[in-house]
Amino acid sequence: MLVNAQQTSFSPPRGDLRTEPGPIRLVIIAIAVVFLTIFVVLPLVVVFAQAFSKGIGAYAAALSDPEALSAIRLTLLVAAISVGSNLVFGVIAAWAIAKFDFSGKTFLITLIDLPFSVSPVISGLVFVLLFGAQGYWGPWLQAHDIHVLFAVPGIALATIFVTFPFVARALIPLMQEQGTQEEEAATSLGASGLQTFFRVTLPNIKWGLLYGVLLCNARAMGEFGAVSVVSGHIRGETNTMPLLVEILYNEYQFVSSFAIASLLAMLALITLVAKTVLERRLDEGQLLRDD
Questions:
Q1: Where, by residue number, does the polypeptide cross the bilayer (predicted)?
Q2: For a designed S-S bond to 226, which of 13, 125, 129, 158 qualifies (C-beta 3.0 to 4.6 A apart)?
């Protein structure tokens, strides 16, 4: 009681907390709002305004074009492959890094962060060197009539490379913070490894996992650089939505270009809303653990 009383007596009154003067706060907020308006809000408004500039009929016709539908299907397919692959890799990598001590852990974390520091164009060129006609495995692939570059496998591989840090990086700090006590308790009670994961670990990381999947999916659908190098730009076959936007814009088909771009913009808005919800869930989970 004495300690509590002393702590209470030394706690500063809420009104004495130092804050910035009102005018300074208003200036800071105004600068932030103006910056976001110029660089975020206005571009989105322009995209949607251009997409609907010739009416809803022209907008619907642009999205129903066979080439646009092919790009949308390919984008969704590549995103599904990338997210599924990175989901498995991210969970395994985060589990290994957070739950076990082993030599080379720092090196593994560095490899996971590598796509953040490597240009997507360079990563695409790496796959060209590996799977191209003059590449390391190119002659063998040609001899067996296996197509990697300028086909779905090459696009999927390039997208997986640039997106694989997102799930792992969302889970590693979360799992490190949770520790291993609950898993050890489940194991001591006779639970198998899979039972421990699905009944103990997964419920604790579900919001962080969804957060990583969300970011991975958004990056996969919007990837341009690496995909541009390995796709070959075959119209109606290997063009994803970002690639088709560039092609249509360069051909002065502005309505069609901005119509496809508006889909990517809507994806960004949906991602933003979902990201905010998931961050709130993660904060609530952190508060519950602290209590």
A1: 26-52, 72-95, 107-134, 146-168, 254-274
A2: 158
